[in-house]
Design goal:
- It is built from four helices and no strands.
- It is an all-alpha fold.
- It is elongated, with a radius of gyration of 30 Å.
- The N and C termini lie far apart (67 Å).
C-alpha cells in the first residue's frame, strides 16, 4: 500500500474518531465525561489484556487451519456483542419492548450462518488446492517425460 493511501486512511480514521468523540462528549445525557473515559479504558484493558490473548491461545491450541481460526474470531466477536442481550432475554421488567426479539435464536442463527460461510470458504480452498496439486503433478509428469534420455545405440566399430 502506498504512503499516500495510508495517510488518507489515517486521516479518515482520525476524522471519524474525532466526530464520534464530539458526539459522545456533546451528548446532553452524559453528565460525567470521566466516567466515560474510565469505561473506555476498562474496555480497552479487558479487550487487549484478556479477550484477545484468550482468543489467540484457544485458536492456536484448538484450531488447525486459518479458516477455522477466522471463524472462531468471528464467533467470539459476535458472542461478545450479542451475549448481553441473550443473557437478559427474560429481564424486561414488565416492558416487552425493551428486548423484543428472540436473541438466543438470532445469535445461534448468526453463528450458524457464519459457520456455513466458513465451511464454504474451506471447501472452495480445498477444491482449488486439489486442482492446483493435480496441475502440478501433470506438469511434473510432462517434464519427466520430455527429459527422458533417448537411448541411442553406440556406433558400430568400423562405421564412421
Amino acid at each position: 500500500m502506498t504512503a499516500g493511501i495510508r495517510a488518507l486512511l489515517l486521516a479518515a480514521g482520525l476524522a471519524v474518531i474525532g466526530y464520534g468523540l464530539y458526539g459522545l462528549l456533546g451528548d446532553p445525557y452524559i453528565t460525567d465525561p470521566t466516567g466515560v473515559l474510565v469505561w473506555a479504558i476498562g474496555g480497552l484493558v479487558v479487550h487487549d489484556g484478556l479477550w484477545v490473548p484468550l482468543v489467540c491461545l484457544l485458536g492456536a491450541f484448538l484450531a488447525r487451519g486459518a479458516v477455522l481460526r477466522g471463524w472462531l474470531v468471528v464467533a467470539a466477536a459476535v458472542t461478545a456483542v450479542g451475549l448481553p442481550a441473550v443473557l437478559r432475554a427474560d429481564d424486561d421488567h414488565g416492558n416487552p419492548s425493551v428486548l423484543p426479539l428472540p436473541y438466543l435464536r438470532n445469535w445461534l442463527l448468526v453463528l450458524a450462518a457464519t459457520a456455513g460461510v466458513a465451511l464454504l470458504v474451506a471447501f472452495v480452498g480445498r477444491w482449488r488446492h486439489r486442482d492446483r496439486h493435480r496441475a502440478v503433478k501433470r506438469r511434473v509428469r510432462a517434464v519427466k517425460h520430455r527429459n527422458r534420455a533417448v537411448r541411442r545405440r553406440a556406433p558400430r566399430a568400423g562405421r564412421s
